């Protein structure tokens, strides 16, 4: 008589982004672009809030990509930003900076009890990192003689901080429902 052997399920290590991950990133970046176009058009202060940052932060939270994949998500987000009026090419550097910050913060234990603070804290600091990189590159270009428009740093900082707060709220509100709807589990 044979005895039944214990069945073991081995979960394979994630090798890269799945097709559903790529589609999710694309949809969220498209939503960010639509928000940037329609809501951003209500602002006339020169620099407009960038909702694309909120959406790539949400994507990174949901799919937890490797760092190189996060950088690629940031580059794609920066390329999408090139469609909108503004200072060309700077977002190709500032968005990957924000994406890297988010990718790092995804792996930190940021929670109070069962409530995850990753969406609000991660998005806030990622938006700050992206905004500060943008401002730094813009002013470096300005001081080296490039033909770029600037405004007082205080105005930029208010816009960056305001965008960081708005992005953080958007991502915090959307994170749990999207995570559950996509079947990404309840645990962090």
TrEMBL record:
The chain crosses the membrane at residues 21-39, 70-90, 96-113, 120-141, 153-176. It comes from the Bacteria. InterPro entries: TrpP. Keywords: Membrane, Transmembrane, Transmembrane helix. This is ABC-type cobalt transport system, permease component.
